């Protein structure tokens, strides 16, 4: 039996990268392989189940019982040290033939010690562009990663096979990192959301689903709301972390200053059931983060019948909308343009209905079954 080690810092973040890890484990198990999961902290599997069955690895190995902080802005040095320790351990175990292959499903950190690396976002080794919407405090962390990466990389044979989640990311990795990855879009539980697409009782609601983090661009929402029609409501469904409070306070303050406090509402850490109910009533899904690597929440909303309005950058534009304006949704360059698209969609039922139906059908291309089939095909070929 082929023995494979999966390496991921923490699955308790329960975001897109963690879905990649879970579905990769599931795919390998279905191929009859033995899978061991290495992480910094003990996995809270109930966070990942979210009402759906989940395939567990054969072995789970971790360095800490307590959760690591879900942020790059706090405890970064400690988490980096733990992650390096874990990667080196897996690397050595593979050298002594304890594992046949190693896979990192968090390839945006260190990945040159594994056989396969799935890159979910712009790697920490790639310098930030001045227009990137990140906290300035992230820059020192990236410098640390870059320094260590440049020191270690020449010492190790370059045999890692890279996979990434979008054509957008492929171009970045090819142009700035000199590698040519395979593109496999991340898994989306389309079936969970497509049941909502038939809901006819739609309201003039624009829904936003995101972790409450400054780099997500949520601070723009009051400005977009200011220039939309007065009967349009904006509902932000978010999960919070330690640094979320300042952003929540800013959104509330800015909404009040702009006179849209009655139309911009935040629902923090609500249940999945309540979130689905809101999505089923919404007409539009708004995405605010520029240069997002992919954007799973966009596809989920499309499957539910919402028409996406996203920045004309990153994976949402290149991979989800396929660079087609007004077919599966709309992409904006300015906040004013985003407002215009929203006004048009809530004001023209036939326009909304046509694009909503296109979006639902298009979302099926990103179903988790498609991801698993592609991963299995690749693994069988290279293993």
Mean pLDDT: 89
| CATH fold field value of the largest domain | Rossmann fold
* Count of individual domains: 2
**What structural class is derived from the secondary structure elements?**
alpha/beta
Shape: globular
- Helix-residue proportion: 40-55%
**Number of helices, where a helix is a run of at least 4 consecutive DSSP H or I residues:** 14
SSE ordering = EHEHEHEEHEHEHEHEHEHEHEHEHHH
CATH class of the largest domain: Alpha Beta
Q: What Rg do the Cα atoms give?
A: 21 Å
Question: Your description of this structure?
Answer:
The chain has 14 helices and 13 strands. It has 383 residues and is an alpha/beta fold. 42% of the residues lie in helices and 16% in strands. The protein folds into 2 domains: 3-187 and 367-382, Glycogen Phosphorylase B (Rossmann fold, 3-Layer(aba) Sandwich); 190-366, 3-Layer(aba) Sandwich (Rossmann fold). The chain has a 7-stranded parallel β-sheet, sandwiched between helices. The protein has a 6-stranded parallel β-sheet with strand order 10-9-8-11-12-13, sandwiched between helices. The protein is globular, with a radius of gyration of 21 Å. Mean pLDDT is 89; it is low at 70-74 and 130-137. Helix 1 crosses helix 14 (368-382) and helix 10 (296-303) packs across helix 13 (349-363). The protein has helices spanning 16-30, 45-49, 76-95, 138-152, 167-177, 190-194, 221-226, 244-257, 272-281, 296-303, 314-320, 335-347, 349-363, 368-382, and strands at residues 3-7, 34-41, 59-64, 101-104, 116-119, 161-164, 182-183, 205-211, 233-239, 264-268, 284-286, 307-311, 330-332. Helix 5 (167-177) links the parallel strand 6 (161-164) and strand 7 (182-183).
């Amino acid at each position: 039996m082929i023995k494979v080690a999966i390496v991921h810092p923490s699955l308790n973040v329960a975001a897109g990268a963690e879905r990649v890890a879970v579905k990769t484990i599931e795919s390998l198990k279905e191929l009859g392989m033995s899978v061991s999961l290495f992480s910094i902290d003990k996995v809270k599997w109930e966070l990942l189940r979210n009402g759906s069955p989940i395939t567990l690895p054969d072995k789970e190995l971790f360095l800490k019982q307590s959760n690591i902080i879900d942020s790059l802005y706090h405890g970064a040095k400690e988490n980096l040290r733990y992650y390096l320790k874990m990667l080196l351990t897996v690397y050595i175990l593979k050298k002594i033939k304890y594992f046949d292959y190693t896979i990192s499903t968090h390839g945006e950190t260190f990945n040159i010690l594994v056989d396969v690396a799935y890159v979910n976002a712009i790697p920490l080794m790639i310098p930030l562009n001045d227009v990137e919407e990140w906290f300035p405090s992230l820059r020192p962390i990236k410098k640390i990663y870059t320094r260590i990466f440049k020191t270690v990389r020449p010492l190790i044979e370059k045999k890692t096979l890279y996979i990434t989640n979008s054509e957008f990311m492929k171009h970045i990795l090819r142009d700035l990192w000199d590698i040519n990855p395979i593109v496999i879009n991340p898994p989306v539980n389309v079936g969970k959301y497509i049941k909502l697409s038939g809901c006819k009782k739609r309201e003039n609601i624009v829904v936003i689903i995101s972790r409450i983090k400054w780099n997500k661009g949520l601070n723009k929402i009051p400005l977009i709301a200011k220039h939309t029609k007065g009967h349009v409501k904006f509902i932000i469904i978010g999960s919070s972390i330690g640094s979320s409070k300042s952003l929540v306070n800013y959104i509330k303050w800015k909404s009040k200053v702009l006179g849209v406090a009655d139309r911009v509402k935040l629902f923090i850490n609500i249940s999945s059931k309540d979130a689905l109910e809101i999505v089923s009533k919404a007409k539009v899904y708004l995405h605010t983060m520029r240069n997002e690597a992919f954007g799973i929440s966009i596809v989920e909303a499309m499957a539910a019948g919402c028409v996406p309005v996203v920045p004309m950058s990153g994976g949402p534009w290149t991979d989800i909308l396929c660079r087609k304006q007004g077919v599966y949704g709309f992409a904006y360059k300015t906040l004013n343009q985003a407002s215009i698209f929203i006004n048009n969609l809530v004001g023209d039922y036939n326009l909304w209905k046509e694009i909503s139906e296109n979006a639902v059908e298009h979302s099926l291309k990103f179903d988790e079954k498609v991801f698993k089939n592609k991963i299995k095909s690749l693994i069988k070929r290279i293993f």
